[in-house]
Structure formats: C-alpha cells, structure tokens
Amino acid sequence: MRIRIKNFYQIRFVLVALAFMALGWLLASPLLEEQRAIYIGVIVVAAIVLLRLLVRMVNFVPTQVNYFLHSLLCNDYMIHFPPTKDAELEDMYENMNCIIGQYRDNLLDIHYKQQYYNRLLRVMTHELRNSITPVISLSSDILKRQDSYHPDKLRRSLKVIHGECENVKSFLDSYYKLTHLPEPQKEEIKVDEFFGRMQELLNDPAIHFSWAEGMTLMADETMLHLVLINLIRNAREATEGMPDASVKIIATEADGVPYIQVSDNGPGVPETIRDEIFLPFYTTKQEGSGIGLCLSRQIMRLHGGDLKLLPINGQGAVFMVTI
Asked: Among candidates 2, 14, 22, which has minimal Cα distance to 54?
C-alpha cells in the first residue's frame, strides 16, 4: 500500500496534536514532579522532531520545483528526477522529466534550424551574387557603349543576361520547392503493387526490389514515389559504369515500424561529407541542384518518419526511409 505525501502530512500533524494532548494530560495528572518532568521532556523532544520533519516535508516539493525551474533557466537539460514509490511525487517527476525532454528536443531543433538557415542564407547570397554580377557588368557596359554593340554582339550579350536570369529563376524555384511542401495525403499503399509499378517504370536489370509479403504502408504515394526515385537515381549514378552494379530496394518492418532501405555497391559516401549531404543546395555533382536529399528528408518528416544515411562497414551506401 502506498502512503502519499498528503497522508504523511496528516499522520505527522495527528502525532504532533497527540503529543500536545499528552503534554496537557501530564500537566493535569497527579504525578510526581520528577516523573512529570521526564515525560514532558520526552514529549517535547518528540514534538520538536515531528515538527521539523513536517516542515521538511512541506518544503520538499517547493524545493524540487525550484530546482527544476532553476535548471531550465540555466539551460541544464541533463537533469533527471528518479523514480519514487510515492504516487503523487511519481506523477510530478514524470511530468517534469517530460518537460525537460521536450525542452531539450526544442533546443536541438532550434540549433539545427539555425544551422540550416545560416547555410541557406550563405548559399543564396553566393548563388545570387554569382548570377547577378555578370548581368550588372554586361548591362552596364551596354548602356555606356551602346554604339559599339552591333546587332549580333547585342544579341549575344542579351543571351548571356537571359541565361543568368534563368539560373536565378531555377535557383529560386528550387528554394520554393523546399519551403512549400504540401501536407501528405496518406492512403494505404500495397507495397507489391507500388514496387511493381516502379520496377516497370525504371526497367533496369541492376535495380532489385523486395518486400515483406502482404506489406502495406500509410503514406502519400506521389511523395513517397518522389523520395524513392531520387534515392534510386542517386544510387544508380554512384554505380554508373560498374559491370556488377547493384541497387537494392527492400521494404520491411521492425518493432512495428515500417521502413524502406535503398542500398548500392558503389563507392559510398565519404566520411567527411556524411553530415553535409542533407543540407540544402549541397551537391557534389556538376549539374546537381543540391535539394534532392534535403527535400526527400523533409517529405519523410512530414509523414512522421525520417530519412537517414546508415553507417556501414565496406563498400556502398545505405539510406533508410522510415514512415
């Protein structure tokens, strides 16, 4: 049987009250002075001890709450309140631990978003400056020396300006895709039919699909298709030119959580850039936009899942999509 804090308060209050009643009885009873003095001394000491314990119990909860609030103010999210046999304290500790966990997750999320937007701002500034600088320079020269620009030269110059403007538009379109993803329209997807359609579309003997029998997924099929096509295309580019090229897409589940793995036997992802590949506009390809993996991860997070690059020993790369 659990004795709650409020029961402790009541018990100790009753004991103190009884001690004082006993003291009153002793004063009124016909005892010898020496006996009365001994009894009174014992009762007073017991009452003082009980009162001190009662004060400590009353102050215990406010002290714990104050410690909790002070930790939050100091950004100390490593504290953890241990389990206790007291039901009321247990509820309070669980709630405080939950708040600390949410606080920690929010801090990490803020830190990640700060890195994300700092990176995005640097990339946008760099790309826009690179595209706009030649436009300003060339258009300024045309205005200053209009007479020297015969029709063919003017046409070539305008073509350069137009090309740079197209680059800016393409870059801004990529940014728009990242920031305007729709909410997933989830529906039940039969994996065998879904993978069958993808296999027919890709029609590549190096790409192999497998799945758990009867497996279904709750996801937006169009968005999931986009994520997998992006991962498969990356894997196929990584294995291009290899006589034994192999890309495997496996759908299964663990502990009730469905996931899809896309693996290849290519050169893999260098350790130095493993933390960079999901950043917006980061690319190692000459013609890459740098939004594929970032966009794919955001899509899966909108589903309540994630996209991760798994650590492996040996050749190749393995990406895991959780839903």
From this structure: 14
In terms of Cα–Cα distance, which of 230, 245, 201 is closest to 321?
230
Question: Can you give the residue ranges of every domain in the chain?
Answer: 5-74, 107-179, 187-322
> Which of the four CATH numbers 1.10.287, 3.40.50, 1.10.3710, 3.30.420 does domain 107-179 have?
1.10.287
299 contact partners, CB below 8 Å, separation of at least 6: 181, 184, 223, 224, 226, 227
- The torsion region of residue 255 among left (phi > 0), alpha (psi -120 to 50) and beta comes to left
**Among all chains, which residue has been given the structure tokens 């137009």?**
162
Type and span of the H or E element at 300:
helix 292-302
Helix (H) and strand (E) counts for the chain?
A: 7, 7
**Model pLDDT, residue 38:** 65
DSSP state of 2: P
HEC profile of 178-242: HHCCCCCCCEEEEHHHHHHHHHHHHCCCCEEEEECCCCEEEECHHHHHHHHHHHHHHHHHHCCCC
Residue-wise over 202-234: b if at least 16 C-beta within 10 A, else e? beeebbebebeeebebebbbebbbebbebbbeb
pLDDT digits (tens, 9 = 90+) for 191-221: 999 999 999 988 889 999 999 999 999 999 9
Q: What is the CATH superfamily name and number for domain 187-322?
A: Histidine kinase-like ATPase, C-terminal domain (3.30.565.10)
Q: Report DSSP state, residue 277.
A: T
> In a 3-state reduction of DSSP, which class is residue 119?
helix
CB contact at 8 A, 285 and 246? no
pLDDT digit string, tens, across residues 7-34: 455 555 556 566 666 656 555 555 445 6
Q: What is the DSSP string of 56-98?
A: HHHHHHHHHHHHHHHHHHTT-----PPP-S-HHHHHHHHHHHH
